[in-house]
Design brief:
Strand content: 15-25%
CATH superfamily of the largest domain: EAL domain
Distance between the termini: 36 Å
Number of helices: 16
Radius of gyration: 27 Å
Number of strands: 18
CATH architecture of the largest domain: Alpha-Beta Barrel
Largest sheet: 8 strands, mixed, barrel
Oligomer: single chain
Structural class: alpha/beta
Number of domains: 2
CATH topology of the largest domain: TIM Barrel
């Protein structure tokens, strides 16, 4: 199972988190407790600020690469989330929301310190402090970044404690109605909050780099389950030469990792999956970021025999250009078009055009988001190869899928 290095830290009352003059390697987000920030001036210790839950401290030394300008002391038992310097530098380079928080905190903290030890009225007169509008903006920025840091910490713990699951949604052959494959979808079962939507954590996992170990685990698990599913079908004795396939989503960071160190080939060899039964799904955003690098990586993947699919087609900025620049085998039409095409003429025309274009280029098409029979009828009319959606089944964990296949085999 994948692991992590980031851990919450606990400081008993009276503990010095760091001292003035020491080098800075971590900033800290307070979850519980209170921290006093103080500095020594002419032999006297001056309290600069007292911080509580949701506040960040220790960031200044990380940003300007100087020694600690103050001492941090736990006024009561305190738990914090550490933010490593390298992680901070990564966030700054990507203009992460945390960067905005840290820069604002540096300025605000500096002004707070001056306000406490110098002339409060002079500072307020400059307009730098005291504005309710500025305070509101600062609090909003802090809340956004604090939530992100907490989410990243929770993701670390979720990976370490195996809180993630892989569920599988059937992909149906349009003309026969038979299940011919599955898409692997990540599910996070949080011990306190329950089910957490991928929309809430995938972006954070990508930004923090956690998508690499998480994505690797998902791919390995999907390949292992595919072999189990195929075995159950083969043992059924049904007269069908086709083998089930598995679709797995690949993120931008994961694409580079899969092809740079032989990870993908290793997974194929260890799980025994036929790469032709594996479809890697990529979004247009991945291709937009670095098309030249993506082209090289995709070419390497194709050499293994795996199939490539472009997911959510039609929502990006230059979808058409990707169809001839990259070696795709499958095109998945975004569910937004599929869901609206029954009632909206324009959506219907877009879907028809996309299917015609895909078939003209020799690509197979998957219509996502099928929710009713009328949509099924329209998709059949246009000779779309595959369908997927809640109309057929919701994503389910592997044991349920396998149980259904075994039951079907015994029938």
């Amino acid at each position: 199972m994948i692991g992590s290095n980031m851990q919450r830290e606990y400081f008993p009352k009276g503990t010095k988190v760091f001292r003035e003059g020491e080098p800075g390697t971590y900033a800290y987000l307070i979850e519980n407790g209170k921290i006093e920030i103080s500095a020594a001036t002419k032999g006297a210790r001056i309290e600069i600020n007292v911080l509580g839950p949701g506040d960040l401290f220790g960031e200044m030394a990380l940003i300007d690469n100087h020694s600690r300008s103050a001492t941090a002391t736990a006024l009561e038992d305190t738990r914090v989330i550490p933010l490593e310097k390298s992680a901070l530098e990564s966030k700054i380079s990507k203009s992460d929301p945390v960067l905005h928080l840290l820069l604002r905190v540096v300025l605000e903290r500096f002004r707070w310190a001056l306000r406490r030890v110098l002339d409060r009225e002079r500072l307020l007169s400059t307009g730098a402090l005291g504005s309710s509008e500025q305070d509101k903006l600062y609090e909003e920025a802090k809340e956004q970044a604090v939530n992100q840091l907490r989410l990243e910490q929770d993701l670390h713990e979720a990976i370490e404690k195996q809180q993630f699951q892989v569920h599988y949604q059937p992909i149906v052959e349009t003309m026969t109605g038979a299940v011919v494959g599955y898409e692997a979808l990540t599910r996070w079962i949080h011990p306190k909050h329950g089910y957490v939507s991928p929309a809430e954590f995938i972006e954070a996992a990508e930004d923090s780099g956690l998508i690499i170990p998480l994505g690797l685990w998902i791919l390995e698990r999907a390949c292992e389950d595919l072999k189990r599913f195929q075995k159950a079908v083969n043992e059924s004795g049904k007269d069908d030469d086709r083998q089930l396939f598995m679709s797995v989503n690949v993120s931008p960071r994961q694409l580079q990792q899969l092809t740079s160190d032989g990870t993908f080939v290793r997974i194929i060899n260890e799980t025994g999956v036929d790469p032709s039964n594996l479809k890697l799904e990529l979004t247009e955003a991945l291709l937009i970021q670095s098309p030249e690098v993506a082209a090289i990586a995709l070419a390497r993947l194709k050499e293994t025999g795996v199939q490539l699919a472009i997911d959510d087609f039609g929502t990006g900025y230059s979808s058409l250009s990707y169809l001839h620049r990259f070696p795709f085998d499958v095109l998945k039409i975004d569910r937004a078009f599929i869901n609206s095409m029954v009632k909206e003429k324009k959506s219907k025309q877009i879907v028809v055009a996309i299917m015609g274009l895909a078939h003209g280029l020799g690509l197979k098409v998957v219509a996502e988001g099928i929710e009713d029979q009328s949509t099924v009828d329209m998709v059949k009319e246009w000779r779309c190869e595959f369908m997927q959606g809640y109309y057929f089944a919701k994503p389910r964990p592997a044991p349920e899928i396998l149980g259904g296949l075994i039951k079907s085999s015994a029938a």
